[in-house]
């Protein structure tokens, strides 16, 4: 077993969102220092049984909306005790709003998928690539590149890792984290005060992204 601070997979999930029209309170709790974890070399995948990626977006007035993002797939590679690569794929057409129901929910989800926001028709998939892991006195962070709405931007994402035993797959990792995504970096500028200060109301550029997922080792036959 090789000992290292693994914050990799986590990043993957963060992609979750940039969120749309208004927003509500922020998502999950801020991770504390990452824990030291023992992990074998090999390929690890995201367990899709109960992954959770949440977004929360707000107006400058304080009210807003929140929801979830759907993960298509994710994996990362550990070689000689270090993460050499990682990737997470998101299906943007399945982005959901959690705080509304009925016609209001469908209307906002449709707006988020339109050209005002994620332009799902032209960019149905978002991709999060993990390029490296950094460590300092405050814990561990993932260095990532997120491609959303056809535009790539770099993010440093703090993560918290907890070893977990998963029946049938061996030892895995529970991964949690939260970060702020700047939607304008991905050319999502609808009602952004940064680009039009004459509007009567604005949606904040930063969207809270939270994630809680599980990484499990690939079992060879």
Structural summary, described in words:
This protein has 221 residues and is mostly beta strands. It has one domain: Lipocalin, CATH 2.40.128.110. Helix content is 8%, strand content 51%. The protein is built from two helices and eleven strands. The protein has helices at residues 8-14, 102-112, and strands at residues 2-4, 37-39, 42-46, 52-58, 64-79, 82-97, 125-136, 139-148, 151-166, 170-182, 206-217. The strands form two sheets. Strands 3, 4, 5, 6, 7, 8, 9, 10 and 11 form a nine-stranded antiparallel beta sheet that branches. It is globular and about 55 Å long. The protein starts with a strand and ends with a strand.
The portion of residues forming beta strands comes to over 45%
Q: How many discrete structural domains?
A: 1
Secondary-structure element series: EHEEEEEHEEEEE
Residue-averaged pLDDT: 78
Summarize the main sheet.
9 strands, antiparallel
What's the architecture in CATH terms? Answer: Beta Barrel
What is the terminal separation in angstroms? 20 Å
> Which residue ranges are poorly predicted, with pLDDT under 50 across at least 5 consecutive positions?
1-35
Outline type:
globular
The name CATH uses for the topology is Lipocalin
| Number of alpha- plus pi-helical segments | 2
Q: How many E-type strands? A: 11
Give the assembly state of these chains.
single chain
Q: Please identify the structural class as seen in this structure.
A: mainly beta
- Please identify which CATH superfamily we are dealing with: Lipid/polyisoprenoid-binding, YceI-like
CATH class: Mainly Beta
Helix amount: under 10%
Q: Over the alpha carbons, how many angstroms does the gyration radius reach?
A: 18 Å
